Amino acid sequence: MKIRTMEKRVSLIAILWVTVISLLVPLGAWGEDSSPVTVETSSPQKLGLTVGKSTILKSQVVIKRVSVGSPEIADVVVLSPQQVSVTGKTPGVTNLTFWKKDDTVSTIIDLEVSPDISRLKEMLEQLIPEEKNIHVSASHDSITLSGTVSSQAGFSQSLALAEPFFPKKVVNLLRIQAPADVSRFKDAVQQVLPEERSIQVSATADGVTLSGTVSSKNNLSQVLALAESHFPKKVANALKVEISPTRFKEILHQVLPSEKDIQVTLTPEGIALSGTVSSAANLSQALAMGETYFPGKVVNLLQVGGIHQVMLEVRVAEISRSLLKRLGVNFNFISGSGNNMGLSLLGSLTSLPAGGFPSAGIDVSSTVNGILRFLAGGTTWTFFIDALKEEGLLNILAEPTLITMSGKTANFLAGGEFPIPVPQGTGAGTTITIEYKPFGVGLSFTPTVLSEKKINMQVAPEVSQLDFSKGVSVGGYLVPSLSTRRVSTVVELADGQSFAIAGLLSHDIREVASKFPVLGEVPVLGALFRSSNFQKNETELIVIVTPHLVKPLDRTQQPLPTDQYIEPDDLEFYLLGQLEGKEKKSSSQATSSSLASDRSSDLEGEFGYIIPE
Predict the structure, then answer these.
(1) N or C, which terminus of the chain has less Cβ within 10 Å?
(2) Tens of pLDDT along 487-515?
(3) Model confidence at 606: pLDDT above 60
(4) pTM score, two decimals?
(5) What is the dihedral of CA 240, 242, 247, 251, to 10 degrees?
(6) What DSSP letter does each residue of 247-273 carry, written as one string?
(7) In what order do the strands lie in the sheet with 83-88?
């Protein structure tokens, strides 16, 4: 564009107005305001404009002509030989070129026209005044929103306001400040997993993002579960599972503070645990933690220190008393002619014979313990009497003792097995098979040494005995029932402590009276027309357990229950009826004693046979 052509378009009034302004306003640098800009020819210049705004450029030399690279971005108007007006039209980048009178380039200016963001700033301040930290900056091809907003709503509103001004040209760098929910979530993580200090929580437009590291997959699952409870379906997980042997050792000592001798060593394929632990329970816990953090990569070199053999003493003590009283009378009479007769069958003491009465003798039950017969007036009277008072006493004391290793199950049974016939139907008929059921004094327990002062035990003592009084008949065989006392429980005790793990106090009374109406109510004589039964039972039972941590003895020979037994000779057994003989000091024993005294200088401690006191 030539200067002469442009000058024709400038009116005289505009020239005068610009001249006055140029005299009043001093020269300045290029800018976005209306002050004139002095063109420096020594170095390239940069100029920034806003769409719709203009500025005046003043050159120190006479300008012959001016050209603009992209007329659609900026418009240039020459006001005088040394002044040019530049107006931004659309956002973009272009350049201005100035020529001097000798057709040499005076200056090249890089011009950047940016969108007008003042209106957007006003809208943000008016509609969301609570968001004070939003910053808006513009370039020739976009605008940028930066800073922080207090909520997701403020985040969305800011983008919605900016988009109409600059469709598809908004660069969003806004961040949502951590809300109270994020703070509460961080506190919850620290309470549940205080050892995890590398978890980062940041709020996003769609929820929260978790980053950093955790020490195990189990902790990762707990963190994600906590996050989902605080932010349902809004959790982005970027956490990684990563732990060092040093960190694992710290966690191990936090869980097991008493185990100071556990060493953790890094191996090419995982870790190695070495040293000693105080109990098998702590050993299992340490290995379980190692498998949690290093699945399938733990080499176990740990040893359990202390005593790990447990002896359990069980005492089952029971005393049972019973009292039984019975009184019943049956009678019959037959006249001398045989035409008159009568009988009573109350209480089933007697029963009619198969051939009929009186042609056949009456059947008498085993409970009848007295029979009285007399003749009066030609009539024969017979009385069958059941009169009994029975007292019973049962005393049971069982003291089984059993030893096993910590964590192992031991079983003990002192008794036997009794056969039970079991009928089984086959195509050829019914066959009888035999099954055996155990009875006696039994004990099963599994100890776990938790520490030197505490033992956990799963114990199940049992005492059973055959009871033929309640047996049943199967296929012609009498099968006895079992009277059983059984306990199964879990307790924790210290070495040598006792615990009554079960007890029973039972007291029951049963009375039965069978009688003829009216006749059985008559005093004294009514006893002939009634049958009475009184039964009373009292039972006391207690089960006590006592564990001990034990070591094997160093003695080569232990005293046995048979050590004090002396076989009786013929005189003691046949004539005196003694089952155990008395001590006899023979010449061989005297010789042995003398030899022992002679050799005492060569041996340490007692030796030889045990002599009963």
Answers:
(1) C
(2) 899 999 888 888 888 888 888 898 888 88
(3) no
(4) 0.44
(5) 60
(6) HHHHHHHHH-TT----EEEEETTEEEE
(7) 37-39, 54-59, 83-88, 74-80
